[in-house]
Amino acid sequence: MPRSTGELVDLFVLETIEEGLYRGKQPETAMQRVFGGQVLGQALLAASLTVDPKRLVHSFHAYFLLPGDPAVPIVYDVDTLRDGRSFSARRVAARQHGKHIFYLTASYQGDEPGLSHQDVMPNDVPPPEECPPLADSLAGVMRSDVAAAMAAEFGALDFRFAGSSAPGGIIQDFSHPAIARVWMRAGASSGHYAEDQGGDQNVPAGEMLHRCLLAYMSDLSLLHASLVPHHAARPEDMIRASLDHAMWFHRPFRADEWLLYDQVSPSASGARGLSFGRIYQEGVLVASAVQEGLIRHP
């Protein structure tokens, strides 16, 4: 997985095979399957390359059909569903080995004035500077070798579990509600992986790129909220996989500046967990996400 800002941004440069057909890059990884956020972000970028740049994605809905093979590039096939006066719609099929592994449908809209309101950002969350880096949080719930490997895989991201939240939903209070809160930003790792690169860790400008990056990041921790009430086993001993994912983009933001991911799980049943996420930046609600995932406990 990308371990520096440059590698992360490079992941979102697709090869054009022909009009509406693109090939994504595969980063080096020790993971046995492609990270779901990578497929989300690349598919969203592929769709966006076929849309008038004056229109930005405001929502997408996606299904993960098969695990991705990290040794093989993914091909993204974009269908134009509609280009209307106000909205555009695209459908993306991701393929490997001649099989569909993922589908995404996205809707785009130009800037338009209208009514505005939002939920209030939680005020009981410690600031990111007071929260441990991902490597430290992982070390508290995983074997040290697994924790170090996972922190290295996501070295281009800065993820910090806030308050009593922890990776895998492991907390000490069994009565804790199904809530998890995470500070996150792209291209500014708190570990030594990005620091070793030196130089500017900021992500280039471009609102579409930042929306693709947020889609990428949004898949990393959303299932954790559904594990909180169960005091789950060590995360590496569980089978977890994203089944579907939806996002709505409300307002402009930068993915390389701190975002609060406020997550809640209303239900878990049938080996599936459902989680909702609200994403804030400096008190502004910039995006919302919903995900259902497979959770199998040994």
Précis, in short:
Helix 2 (36-48) runs antiparallel to helix 6. This protein has helices at residues 5-10, 36-48, 134-139, 144-153, 192-195, 207-218, and strands spanning 15-18, 21-23, 55-64, 75-83, 87-96, 99-110, 157-161, 179-186, 239-249, 259-269, 272-281, 284-296. The protein has 298 residues and is an alpha+beta fold.
> Any idea what the radius of gyration is?
18 Å
- Average pLDDT, all residues: 87
CATH architectural type: Beta Barrel
Which parts are unreliable, with pLDDT below 50 for 5 consecutive residues or more? 169-174, 190-200
Q: Percent helix among the residues?
A: 10-25%
- Number of separate domains: 1
Assigned CATH superfamily: Acyl-CoA thioesterase, double hotdog domain
How is the secondary structure organized here?
Elements: H1 5-10, E1 15-18, E2 21-23, H2 36-48, E3 55-64, E4 75-83, E5 87-96, E6 99-110, H3 134-139, H4 144-153, E7 157-161, E8 179-186, H5 192-195, H6 207-218, E9 239-249, E10 259-269, E11 272-281, E12 284-296
Antiparallel strand pairs: 1-2, 2-4, 3-6, 3-9, 4-5, 5-6, 7-8, 8-10, 9-12, 10-11, 11-12
Helix pairs in contact: 2-6
